[in-house]
Every structure is written in structure tokens, then in C-alpha cells.
Amino acid sequence: MRSLALLLCLAQLCSCRSIPLGTALTYRQLNCDDPETEQAALAAVDYINSHMLQGYKHTLNQIDKVKVWPRALERIQKQMNCQEQRQGFTKLPYLCLPCYSFPTLPRPMGEVFELEIDTLETTCHVLDPTPLANCSVRQLVEHAVEGDCDFQVLKQDGQFSVLFAKCDSSPDSAEDVRRLCPGCPLLAPLNDTKVVHAVDVALTAFNAQSNGSYFRLLEVSRAQLVPLPPSTYVEFAVAATDCAAKDVTDPAKCNLLAEKQYGFCKATLTEKVGGEDVAVTCTVFQTQPLLPQPQPEGPDAVAVDPRADPAVPVPSQADVPVASLVVVSEESASGEAVHVEKGPTVVQPGIAVVPDPALRPCPGRIRYFKV
């Protein structure tokens, strides 16, 4: 009797319908200049600029590639109750094995835009509250800087959110700059002795003229050595302290304000016979209270720390001529190879979709110029 009961129970178990996991899903091909693609790319650029640690804001220049993958959450619904199978066998419940079933279709959870985009550095520092739309793009003759980025952007319920970001940035080649403008200065290493000296002299001069707070150096953002007349051009970020500029005797005892107040300075130190002249202008921004940032939700969300205090010392920039593109990274202050390592859970790709011949092939249009 027990053998018969076991056989019947196993027969009921085998009758449970199931759908194999890992159903292949294919990507959708979009035009690189499609409005939906551009929306995803602009969300990616906003993510870059809102999570920079230093340097300058970047703007979208070109969309190189795009694929749109369906994102699904495959749920295994485990049914432990074998009541139907046990009917008639109440005296032998231990002989019934649990029955499992799966949903007939994956539950849709939005789409993931897999993007490759190019960005260009603007003249607005990351601490500058000026909207990106009002920031000028750094021109080629100024030794432009380009960002090369890979993104995975989730679109769900009409909203875009970044799941994965990887950006490298690099200045244009010296040859390209010289070809356009033979006499234009090139970017200089930020630890060059002339650069360090120019920043120190310029900041000292600014504090000497100030009737308000004493400002402390946060970072050197950009530098160029000008051959004629011999001079050093620098751009650097500063922060206000709790000391009055006129009363400072020991800058080491000055602390940053609780409500951070930042500034951005441009200066030129010109060498002269028997001395040097410095011209410096600084723009001081509104105070910026530290506010808690909402964290993304969902199983694939990237947890992002609030933007690091730019006053915290950062790794050396000795071999890097420009600090430009930084995306949530503690390992590099140069912006040369920064990553948000966590990516989305995407169903294993199936057979690729053949692109529609009516679509303009990627890459898309260049919005400014090619570096």
C-alpha cells in the first residue's frame, strides 16, 4: 500500500507544470539620436555631474552606441502544500514530496539602456551652482578634455536611473591643439613647481584683499604655462573657514564652516625682471548646507554615498594635467579610470535583433566638436 501511495504521489508531482528559467530575451535597436536614447544619455550625464568629487561639469557630445534590454524578475513560487496530492492519503503525509511551479511568463521590470557616450568638459566647476545648460564647453584651443563613458540606465515607469557607470577622461592631444593654435598654451601637470607657487601666491593675495572669511585651498583644477609673456595660469577651488581673513596668524587652526561656502578662482602669475605680478579673481558661491541624499531603491540599485567633502585631502595628481571626470570613486582623484562597479541584473541576451535599415546607424550626431 505504501508503494502504491508513493507512486501516486510522485505521479502528481510530475504533473506539476513548469516553465524553464532563463528564457532568452533580445535587445531592441534604437537610433542613437532617438529622443528616448537622448533622454537616457542626459540622465547619465546628470548622474556624472551630481556625483563628481572635483573638476568640471561635463556635457553630452555624442552617443556612440545603444542597446535596450528588457529587464525581468524571475520569481520561483514554491508551493509547499501538497494537499491535493495527499487527498486520500492522510495517514501517509510524509510520503508526499513538495510541488513547485513557476510563472508562465517573467514579470516585466522596465528596460535597461546600454549606452556608450562621449562628453566634453565645460568651464563650470563642479561646485558652481550654474545650471549645466548655461555652462560653456571648453574649446579646442583651450586644450579641451573629453570623457568616454559606458552606462547602464534603467527606464521604469517613465523614469531613468543609473545602474552602472564607468568613465575615463583625457585631454586632447598636444598635436591637435598645436595644429589649430600653434601659440596656445597646453595643460600643465598640477604638481609642477610653477603651478604650486602660482596658486599659493594667488590665494595669499585673495585673502589679503578679503574683508570676510579666510579661504583655504581645496584643489587645483587646471593649469597652463604661457610662454609669452612668461606666466602661469591657474584655476583652483577654495572653501571659507571660521577665521577672519584679516586676523589669521595660523591657518592650520582655521576650520571649514558647518554650512560649506565654496569659491572658484582664476589667476595669472606673470614673471617680471626683479619680481612677479599676480592677478586673481574669485567667485564665491552661496553656502551649501549638507543635506541627506535619497538612496536608490530596488534589488539592482547602486547605493551612493553623499558627495564627499571636497575639503578632504585627495590622492596625488602628480602625473595628471587635469582633474576632470570623477564618478563616485575613492580610488582616483584624477578622473582617469573611475567606476561604479555594481551593474544591473539583466536576462542573458538571446539572438540579437537585426537593426532596422531605416534607422540612422550609430554613432549619433556630434553636438559640439570631435576631440
TrEMBL record:
Keywords: Disulfide bond, Glycoprotein, Repeat, Secreted, Signal. It holds the Pfam family Cystatin. One of its GO terms (cellular component) is blood microparticle. Residues 27-168, 179-290 form the Cystatin fetuin-A-type domain. One of its GO terms (biological process) is negative regulation of bone mineralization. It comes from the Eukaryota. InterPro entries: Cystatin_dom (IPR000010), Cystatin_Fetuin_A (IPR025760), Cystatin_sf (IPR046350), Kininogen_Fetuin_HRG (IPR050735), Prot_inh_fetuin_CS (IPR001363). Residues 1-16 form the signal peptide. This is Alpha-2-HS-glycoprotein. The lineage of its organism: Eukaryota, Metazoa, Chordata, Craniata, Vertebrata.
